[in-house]
Amino acid sequence: MTTDAMVPFAPNRRRAMTLAAAAAFAAIIAPRMSFATEAQVADEIKKLFGGKAMGEGKIKLDLPEIAENGLVVPINLDVDSPMTEADYVKSVHVFADGNPLPQVVTYHFTPESGKASASARMRLAQTQNVIAVAEMSNGALFTAKAQVKVTIGGCGG
Question: How far apart are CA 147 and CA 127, in angstroms?
Answer without folding.
Answer: 7
